[in-house]
Amino acid sequence: MTEPAARERVLSGIQPSGASHLGNYLGAQVNYVALQDQFDAIYAIVDFHALTTVHDGALLRKLTHEMVLDLLAVGLDPKKCALIRQSDLPEHAELSWIFNTVVPVAWAERTPTYKEKREDGVENSMGLLDYPVLQAADIAIYKASRVPVGKDQAAHLELSREIVRAFNRRYGPIFPEPQPVFSDAPVVLGTDGQKKMSKSANNTIPIFAEPDEVRRIVQKMVTDPLRIKRTDPGRPEVCNVCQLHRFFGSDYLQIQDGERTARTGCVETKQLLAERIIEFFRPMREERARLAADPGHVEEVLAAGAAKVRPILEATMAEVHAATGIGPRGAIG
Ligand code: TRP
To answer: 145-175: per-residue pLDDT in tens?
Structure first.
């Protein structure tokens, strides 16, 4: 019998930044679930990264747990993938330090997200500057070759590639260059109909909110600003309520047509959207509640995930130690 070919390794990092919303789900989580069947997939909740913005220990631990529950509920299966908490594997931070010694400060300083985050008022800490170096370590420590991320992460991935090249030049070819995998999921706009749906823009539809909360949020969504009276024809191409219907039923063209011809009103189109969102996520919401009722479950999943990936990371770190001269474990060859 022949051994099955080793599957390519995929890694993504997820910030524990609050309740998962439609943008997270459609833009990333659906893709994570699909990838776990085809690849050796590792998903890391990046709590070390979160320290750059979350400064309350109890809150960070809570956000981390909630994110694990969200990811399990949408369909990540710990038997198929490894779901890990970055800080359970502190070698991520160790490798990040080692990478720091090969990364010119200018590379970190010119990262566009560094400038953007400072403009958004994030504290300008060493951690913020170093953020993409830790990200490179997250990927390289498992020699992951593919990284499913949003387009906003393109610069980080380019930097990850430069970092592993710089390391390999100095110490020999230890790390593969990771490739980003951009999903073709469309950008999901928020309830304001203007900006990308995101926690910081405060325009999200949380997928696990109680049904009445979803109804309230959807009812307040901004639609076509030029459709003022019920009898005015609408423009579904600029109405985000109409656009979101695409994801929740095959009849979205009829729905859009109803708006265009003023056969239907915004209120009923919103009501329908809210009910469809609620129904779509109902089984996941129920699964999440079931999982949350077992207080030890999240830590068990994380412990199993860490145990699964630890041998991979230890093999890499042994090579890194040997090449760099760090520690007694470097005494190979
Ligand atoms: N920077 C990513 C984000 O903000 C999170 C992240 C951390 C990540 N480490 C990673 C993504 C490794 C992909 C691979 O979304």
So the answer is: 999 998 889 999 999 999 999 999 999 999 9
pLDDT tens for residues 215-243?
A: 999 999 999 999 999 999 999 999 999 99
The 10s digit of each residue's pLDDT in 297-307 is 999 999 999 99
Interatomic CA distance for residues 232 and 254, integer angstroms: 17
Distance of CA 116 to the CA centre of its chain: 18
Query: Are the CB atoms for 263 and 33 separated by under 8 Å?
Result: no
3-state secondary structure of 84: strand
The finding on whether 149 has its CB within 6 A of some atom of ligand 1 is yes
For 22-76, write each residue's pLDDT tens digit. 999 999 999 999 999 999 999 999 999 999 999 999 999 999 999 999 999 999 9
Q: Whose CA is nearest to atom 11 of ligand 1?
A: 13
Distance 135 CA to ligand 1 centre (A): 6
Give yes or no for residue 333 having a pLDDT over 50: no
The residue whose C-alpha atom lies closest to atom 2 belonging to ligand 1 is: 13
Answer yes or no: is pLDDT of 178 > 90: yes
Cβ 11 under 6 angstroms from ligand 1: yes
Q: Is the CB of 42 under 6 A from ligand 1?
A: no
For ligand 1, whether the C-beta of 178 sits within 6 Å is no
Q: Which domains does the chain have, with CATH numbers?
A: 9-188+295-324 (3.40.50.620), 211-290 (1.10.240.10)
Give yes or no for a contact between 260 and 236, defined as CB atoms under 8 angstroms apart: yes
Q: Ligand 1 within 6 A of 31 CB?
A: no
CA–CA separation, 265 and 310 (whole Å)? 56
Q: How far is the CA of 96 from the centre of ligand 1 (A)?
A: 14
Q: Check if 16 has its Cβ closer than 6 Å to any atom of ligand 1.
A: no
How many C-beta atoms lie closer than 10 Å to residue 5's C-beta?
6
